Amino acid sequence: MNNNNTFTRRDFMKLAGTAGAAALLAPNLVLADEARKRNFSIGSTFILWGYGADNLEPALSDIAKLGYHSFETFGQVIEEWEKNRGGFKQVVEKYKVPIVSAFCMTDVLDPSKRKDETEKLVRWAKLLKASGGKVVEYCPTGIKREGYNYKDHKKNLVESMNEYAKAVTDEGLVCALHPHTGTPIETEEEVYFIMENLNTDYMKFGPDVGQLQKGGADPVKIVKDFMPLIEHVHLKDYAGGDNGYLGYAPLGTGKVKIEKILNLLEKRKHEMAGMIMFELDHDNKIKPAYTQYEAARVSHDYLQKLGYSFNA
């Protein structure tokens, strides 16, 4: 597929000649100075509390108590509340935490599913927009990774995601790709391949730095290289092991270079449609060391020490 609107590493090097990209490559001293100017308000995704519609209110209650500035849930959770639970906006207004984004997944390998998947994605996008959200954090649905080679699926990967991203953009929202373990876009090689082949007029970038770390990638490098396309971020730490969080960890307790990534992202603040969202995965099988509230508080306190503020 010949796409004149793709973003390549060559494009990034061209951007390095501009003031914005030059700032990304500035010495550590400049980064340290910028780190003192914390611009971002930090939100939270809701999956620490679970994955279904029943988990929304407990999540919003804790998120509100800790003063996170916004939240993210799944497209299907919004739809469930809208159709069967008296309306999504009323529960958001109850806890006074605005929604900024919805995590939405569709198939990218089977072209026979594309029409239905596009309709579903547009339905979720409309509901998100009506609720005040701005970003679809888009992720391909999971696959069996054993024996998978992304090169064998290039046509379907690129065509399907271009179509999905355009459909979201046509609804007036931003579509940002979220690479994820256990999906067709997991490894560093796959991230570069797909972002360099997609039409980035429509598909932007919404990295999860913990997922990238778990997938064997270098999240700092990826954030640097694709900074001009980043519109939304899941801020997640990764420690490994069976810890009740699928190997992830409260912020500041794992291997991800969180502070370095935040220093880089501060330069993107005024261009991003979305936000930085704290996230920690929920494991149904293993009891973690913290309650959901405690884990969210550990991450809140870590961010506060770095200079970020939260609602009273």
Kindly describe this structure.
- This protein is α/β, with parallel strands linked by helices.
- It has one domain: TIM Barrel.
- The protein has 13 helices and ten strands.
- Helix 3 packs across helix 12, helix 4 runs parallel beside helix 13 and helix 5 packs across helix 7.
- It starts with 8 loop residues before the first helix and ends in a 7-residue tail after the last helix.
Largest sheet: 8 strands, parallel
Radius of gyration: 19 Å
Strand content: 5-15%
Number of E strands: 10
CATH architecture assignment name:
Alpha-Beta Barrel
**Helical region count?**
13
Q: CATH superfamily name?
A: Divalent-metal-dependent TIM barrel enzymes
SSE class: alpha/beta
Identify the strand order in the major beta sheet.
6-5-4-3-2-1-10-7
Shape: globular
Instruction: State the separation between the terminal residues, measured CA to CA.
Output: 51 Å
**Run of helices and strands:** HHHEHEHHEHEHEHEHHEEEHEH
Report the helical percentage.
Answer: 40-55%
Provide the domain count.
1
Q: Average pLDDT across residues?
A: 91
Determine the CATH topology: TIM Barrel
